Amino acid sequence: MEKIIVITGGSRGIGAATAHLAAERGYAVCVNYLHNQKAATSVVDSIEKLGGKAIAVAADIASETDVINLFNTVDEQLGKVTALVNNAGILEQQMRVENMDGDRLNRIFTTNITGVFLCSREAIKRMPSKNGGAGGAIVNVSSVASRLGSPGEYVDYAASKGAIDTMTIGLAKEVADEGIRVNAVRPAFIYTEIHASGGEPNRVERVKEFVPMKRGGQPIEVAKAILWLLSDEASYTTGSFIDVTGGK
């Protein structure tokens, strides 16, 4: 059976690291991106140079039409998805809740929550044996923020990840007898470009002393946890979480 993976937000950071590792482990990879075609194409090219199979597909996961088109494109070019990594997510400038407006909240929640639901919906339509699929696995990229709350910085982002934690548990139970497993990883303080979106590119350097391991994490460390949850080694694991947090 060919292993086919869709990675949302797969052009940079944790998504790109996951794409490369998945390709090394025999997956045909769909690298989803929103704006940065150059970065997505670079990931695809590097996979293909090593003999792997990959495509880059632009889609805004906050758009239902885009998500449907994303999965239809994968159907046509790679085949039915067997693994989904819901990695795409956004945050905005650090601020207190009292200063957040409705437009910001809608942007955060639509991408970080609705987008994950839409992508998961399309995946589980294709994965069950009752629909001609071969089963599959979904890994949601949550955040330690769902436990810590991110006061004074990103309470809205943290709340969106709390919703994904709940969704992970509920969906895992809903599809457990259909050959589909649903789990999540919760990273913390990983060296990626997302911190620049919040106005503090060097945030990991500021907070790493509060991490028991006294360092930030690398995207590949999160990717390895994701690939384990997708693998047969985790065949009896669903509705579970791996915190990739340095002990935080």
Give a structural overview.
The protein is α/β, with parallel strands linked by helices. The chain has one domain: Rossmann fold, CATH 3.40.50. It has nine helices and seven strands, in the order βαβαβαβαβααβαααβ. The protein has a seven-stranded parallel β-sheet, with helices on both faces. Helix 1 runs parallel beside helix 2 and helix 1 crosses helix 9. It is globular and about 50 Å long.
Give a quick set of tags describing it.
248 residues; alpha/beta; Rossmann fold; 44% helix
Write a compact overview of the structure shown.
With 248 residues, this protein is an alpha/beta fold. The chain contains nine helices and seven strands; from the N terminus they run E-H-E-H-E-H-E-H-E-H-H-E-H-H-H-E.
CATH topology: Rossmann fold
Q: Structural class, judged by helices and strands? A: alpha/beta
Number of domains: 1
Which architecture name does CATH use?
A: 3-Layer(aba) Sandwich
Number of helices: 9
Helix content bin: 40-55%
Written as H for each helix and E for each strand, in order along the chain, the element string is EHEHEHEHEHHEHHHE
Q: CATH homologous superfamily?
A: NAD(P)-binding Rossmann-like Domain
Q: What is the overall pLDDT average?
A: 94
Largest sheet: 7 strands, parallel
Ranges with pLDDT <50 over ≥5 residues?
Answer: none
Termini gap: 39 Å
Q: Radius of gyration over alpha carbons?
A: 17 Å
Instruction: Estimate what percentage of residues fall within beta strands.
Output: 15-25%
- How many strand segments? 7
The main sheet orders its strands as: 3-2-1-4-5-6-7
Cα shape: globular
Name of the top-level CATH class = Alpha Beta
